[in-house]
Each structure stands twice: as C-alpha cells, then as structure tokens.
Amino acid sequence: MPAGNRVAANLNMLFTNLPLLQRYGAAAAAGFKLVEVSIPYSEPANKLRQAADEHRLEHTLINAPPGNWDQGFRGLASLKSEKEAFRNSLDTAIEYARALDCKRVHIMAGIPRTADDVAHASATYSENVRFAAQKLKEHNLLCLIEPINKYTIPGYHLHNYEQAMEVINQDDSQNLKIQYDTFHAQQINGQVGATLRRLKEHIGYIQVAQVPARGACDTRGELDYHFIFSEIGAVNAEWVIGAEYLDGVGAKESFGWVIEMAVHF
Ligand SMILES: O=C(O)C(=O)CO
C-alpha cells in the first residue's frame, strides 16, 4: 500500500449522472477503493453492500439519517422537538453501518427553528451527541461531528470548532471525534492548516473540496491543496480523506489530483 492518506469518493456528490447503486462501479472505474455515502437510506443496506463488494470497495463513512432533507432538515441532534426521531435515527445508522462494514457515523446537528428548539439547542445537542457516542461505541462505531460553515447551511447548529470542542470535553466515551472538512474550515475561521494541527488529537476524519464553488481539489479557488495535503500527511497519514465535492464544477472531470497531490486511492 503506497504511503500517504487514502481518499474516499463521496457517492452522494460524485457520479451524480448515475443512480446511487451504479455509482459504485463508476467510482471503482475511476480508481477508488474507498467510498463514503452521506445519505445511504434511499437503498436497502444489502444492495449497497452488494454493489460495494462487486466492485471491491469499502465504506468509510455514513451519516445518521438527517431527517427529511427535502423539508429542510439537516440533522436532528440539536432539535429538542425531534429527540425520539434522533434516537431512532441511531438505530438505523447502526443497522446500515454494520451491514456495510462501515466504522464511522457522522451525526448531523440540524437547524433549530422554533423558539423552543433554539432555546434548548445547545443542551439538547450535547446530551444527544454524548448519547450517540456511547451507543455507537457499543457497536464499535466511531461517532463524528462536523462543524459546518454558516454560508453553506445558514442556521446549522454546529458552526465552529469551539462548540465541537465544548461537547468533546463534556463527553467521556472516548468515542467522539471531529469530521474536519477543509471546505468548511476555510469559511469558518481560515487557518486551515493551523486549526488541523491544533485539533489533531480530536480529528477522526477529513473531507475536502475547493472554496467557494465546492469543486475538486485541482479546480481554481482559495485553497492550495498541494499544501493542505502535505499538512494532512505530516500530521496524520492514517486519516481517511473524503472527496466531498460537487462533480462537474470546473473544467476537469478527472481524479488525477489524487495522484498528483501525493494522496492515493
Ligand atoms: O455538508 C457537509 O459538508 C457534510 O459533510 C454533510 O454530511
């Protein structure tokens, strides 16, 4: 296995000209051996596993069910009004993670909207995330939380790294880490490399995309991914990197950057 961080294809954002189950073949044909599926729930878990096995792909990450995406839900963890739905979402996430042999589950925070949800968001979020970290630990699954910048998802509860560290410091499961997405980090506080180094002990997974258009790492934008991948590799070459970017943004429709930038499939 070559040195350097491995890259997983996000099958909800890449190969979107194909139905989800056919994206596994497209990812494998492009050279990927790892995939992440943020929202796998449109297909039965066994069908996804069958597609992955057929193309010798491993799942690196799924999200817990985020609520009704089309109705504007972006996760449930901070919503007092959705506490039962959140607990049920963990059971579904565990079922899928086990079926897919996936070891990481991202818990999305959600967008508190009602006055009562807003008033109770921080306490609800902390309680739910700590519950999830402990429950996932019982199934040998790592619990991840991802600060998301306020421009991409306005109103999203978890929108900076101080909030994430506050919950991590309250948690005693030893099973709660940050999903560090450089696309969000740049827009949350910049200092993408410095923040990575500062939080390295608490980071469990990386995601990447170019800023501001959320295109591939070799498309034009604010971030120099030659530098960022060298920083990631210098800090922890074991971190998996999720290629979570919009396909079709920018001229190139290739994954040459994976080799060109000293990371690998
Ligand atoms: O929107 C993102 O960046 C996510 O990773 C959601 O899972």
From TrEMBL:
Ranges for domain Xylose isomerase-like TIM barrel: 26-258
Class of this enzyme: isomerase
Entries under InterPro entries matching the protein: HyI-like, Sugar_Epim/Isomerase, Xyl_isomerase-like_sf, Xyl_isomerase-like_TIM-brl
Recorded superkingdom: Eukaryota
Keywords: Isomerase
Reaction equation(s) it catalyzes: 3-hydroxypyruvate = 2-hydroxy-3-oxopropanoate
Alphabetical list of Gene3D superfamilies matching this protein: Divalent-metal-dependent TIM barrel enzymes (3.20.20.150)
A biological process term (GO) from this entry: glyoxylate metabolic process
GO MF annotation: an example: hydroxypyruvate isomerase activity
EC number(s) on file: 5.3.1.22
Free-text function comment from the UniProt entry: Catalyzes the reversible isomerization between hydroxypyruvate and 2-hydroxy-3-oxopropanoate (also termed tartronate semialdehyde).
Protein name: Putative hydroxypyruvate isomerase
UniProt lineage: Eukaryota, Metazoa, Ecdysozoa, Nematoda, Chromadorea
